[in-house]
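Residues pack. One example:


***
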Amino acid sequence: MKQVRNTHAKTEILNLINDSDIALTHSDIQKKLGDLCNRVTIYRVLERLENEGAIHKIVNIDGVVNFAKCSGKCSHEQHFHNHVHFNCKECHSVTCIENAIPEISLPEHFIAQEYNFIISGICPKCADA
């Protein structure tokens, strides 16, 4: 098994994602980190964190990749993210809705390996504004 490297950038990026109620884009992370590291390092760290089972990625309705923390069930072998993601059309936030898990019935000989469920609408913060 490969050794897990913990760098300052990796720790900061993981803290940002874990402390956020919404999924963050690469751009969001880069803005929050300031001059700590460059964009390529951020991409590498995000890929490493995903491979380690610490975060998962969500492609929003605009095709932008967002990153969110994993539940405690994920590992480097397998992710468990077959829940719904809500994409707000007003503020463009992406939120994991862990307790909404759609049931899928595929035709014979189709094997699902990964799901990406996106529901778009207006989030509670924007609806109250």
Observations:
- Residues 7 and 45 are 9 Å apart (CA to CA).
- The two ends are 49 Å apart (CA to CA).
- The chain has one domain: 8-128.
